[in-house]
Specification:
Number of domains: 2
Structural class: alpha+beta
Shape: globular
CATH architecture of the largest domain: 3-Layer(aba) Sandwich
Bound molecules: adenosine-5'-triphosphate
Strand content: 25-35%
Distance between the termini: 29 Å
C-alpha cells in the first residue's frame, strides 16, 4: 500500500503530518534522501530535502526551471556531494555521514535528455555496452530480452541514425536498464522529442519501466508529463519539496498556492463560511462540496480553488460577471470572466460553445469533486 492511500483523505488538520509521512522511509524504500542540502558558493540549491522512493515506484520531481531537480538527480547518482544530510540506497549510506560511494558503484542508471547513443554501434551493441563484464551467453540473452521489452527486436542491427527519435529513446532506455540498476534516473527524458511523440513516449516509457519492475526517479517541468507517467509526484520549489503524493491528490488538493498554480490553471474565489453554505460572488456553495471544512470555520473568510473545468458559464443578463477574454484552444476554449465582485475566474468550454467578449454570464459549479480552499491570504493549507 502506498503512503498516500494510508492517510485519511477527509482529514484536513493532518496536512503537516501527511507531508512528513509521505516523505519518510518505509520498509520497502529503495532510495532515501534524508535532510539533504546542497550549496554552490553562496547559493543554497537544495534545502533540507527528504524523500523516500519505494521499490518499483515511479516518482517524478516536478518544478520550474532552476528549482534544483537536476541537482537532486546528480546527488543521487553520486555526481555531486551533499553539504548536509544523507542519501541511502537499499538502506546503505552512499553519500553523507562521512562516506561517499562512487557513481559506478551505486547501481544507479541514468537516462539523459540527449539519449547519447553511440553512433557507430548498432541498437543491440548500444544495449550491450554496459554488460562488458557479463559472459557472452548471459549478455546475448539480456540484450534480446531488453530489445523485446522496448519492442525493437527487429531493429537490433540498425544504427542510431537509421532509427526514429522515439526508437532512439527506447534504445537509450534499454541500455540504461540492461545492467539491472537498483534505481533508474530520468532527466527530462522527453524534452528532445516533438509534442506528439512526447505524449506517446510517456505511456510507452511507463509501460517499459513497470514491466522491468525498476524503481525510477524522473525530473521534468512539464506537469502533464509528470501526472501521466508517475505513481507519485513531488512538486519542488526553490530546492524544497512543497508537496508529494499521488498525481490526482496533488492536483485536486494542493497544499500551497504555488502547487495549485504550477499544476494547472488556478483561480481563487473568495467566500464567507456560513452554517450550511459558503457564500461567493457566484452564489452559495453547499459546505459538503468543500474539502474538509471543519465547523469552527463558520464566519471565516476563505478562498476556494477553482480550475477552469470546475465552472460553467451561461449567457444571462442578470448574471455574475462579463466575459473579458476568450482563448481558442482547438477542442476547447478558455474564457476569463470578470465578476461584479472584482474577482477574475477562468472557465473552459467545449469549442462549440461560443460566448462573446463583453457578454454577461452566470457561473455555476460544474465540478463533481469537492473543492479545495485556503484561509483568506494564506499561502498554504498548513496555515489553517
Ligand atoms: P532546469 O529545469 O532548468 O534543468 P533544474 O530544476 O534542474 O532546472 P538545477 O539544474 O538543479 O535546476 O539548478 C539549480 C540551481 O543550481 C540553478 O540556479 C543553477 O544555476 C545552479 N547550479 C547547478 N549546477 C551548478 C554548478 N555546478 N555550479 C554552480 N551552480 C549550479
Amino acid at each position: 500500500m502506498s503512503n498516500d492511500t494510508m492517510v485519511n483523505d477527509t482529514m484536513v488538520n493532518d496536512t503537516a503530518v501527511r507531508s512528513t509521512r509521505e516523505s519518510t522511509a518505509s520498509a520497502e524504500s529503495v532510495l532515501e534522501l534524508d535532510g539533504v542540502s546542497k550549496r554552490f558558493g553562496d547559493e543554497t540549491v537544495i534545502e533540507d530535502l527528504s524523500l523516500a522512493v519505494e521499490e518499483g515506484e515511479i516518482l517524478t520531481l516536478l518544478g520550474p526551471s532552476g528549482c534544483g531537480k537536476t541537482t537532486t538527480l546528480r546527488l543521487v547518482a553520486g555526481l555531486e556531494r551533499p553539504d548536509e544530510g544523507e542519501i541511502r540506497l537499499d538502506g546503505d549510506v552512499v553519500s553523507g555521514n562521512g562516506s561517499f560511494r562512487s557513481p559506478e558503484r551505486r547501481g544507479v542508471g541514468v537516462v539523459f535528455q540527449e539519449f547519447a547513443l553511440f553512433p557507430h554501434l548498432t541498437a543491440g551493441e548500444n544495449v550491450a555496452f554496459g554488460l562488458k563484464e557479463w559472459d557472452d551467453a548471459d549478455r546475448e540473452k539480456r540484450v534480446s530480452e531488453l530489445l523485446d521489452l522496448v519492442d525493437l527486436s527487429a531493429q537490433r542491427d540498425s544504427y542510431p541514425d537509421e532509427l526514429s527519435g522515439g526508437q532512439q529513446q527506447r534504445v537509450a532506455l534499454a541500455r540504461s536498464l540492461a545492467p539491472e540498476p537498483e534505481v533508474l534516473l530520468l532527466d527530462e527524458p522527453f524534452s528532445n522529442l516533438d509534442v506528439d511523440l512526447r505524449v506517446r513516449m510517456r505511456e510507452e516509457v511507463r509501460r517499459i519501466l513497470k514491466a522491468a519492475g525498476v524503481t525510477a526517479v524522473s525530473v521534468t517541468h512539464d506537469q502533464e508529463e509528470a501526472m501521466s507517467m508517475s505513481d507519485r509526484v513531488a512538486v519542488v520549489n526553490a530546492g524544497r519539496i512543497e508537496q508529494i503524493g499521488r498525481p490526482e491528490r496533488v492536483f485536486q488538493h494542493p497544499e500551497s498556492r504555488f502547487v495549485a498554480g504550477f499544476l494547472g490553471h488556478a483561480s481563487f474565489l473568495g467566500g464567507t463560511v456560513g452554517r450550511d453554505a459558503v457564500s461567493t460572488a457566484v452564489g452559495d456553495i453547499p459546505r459538503e462540496r468543500i474539502h474538509g471544512l471543519a465547523p469552527e470555520y463558520e464566519g471565516s473568510a476563505i478562498e476556494l480553488l477553482v480550475r477552469p473545468d470546475d465552472l460553467e458559464a451561461t449567457p444571462d443578463p442578470d448574471g455574475d460577471g462579463v466575459v473579458s477574454s476568450r482563448r481558442y484552444l482547438g477542442p476547447t476554449a478558455l474564457y476569463e470572466i470578470e465578476l461584479d465582485s472584482g474577482e477574475a475566474v477562468s472557465c473552459m468550454h467545449n469549442h462549440d460553445v461560443h460566448l462573446d467578449r463583453g457578454e454577461r454570464v452566470a457561473l455555476s459549479l460544474a465540478a463533481a469533486h469537492d473543492l479545495s480552499w485556503f484561509p483568506e491570504g494564506a499561502e498554504t493549507v498548513v496555515d489553517r
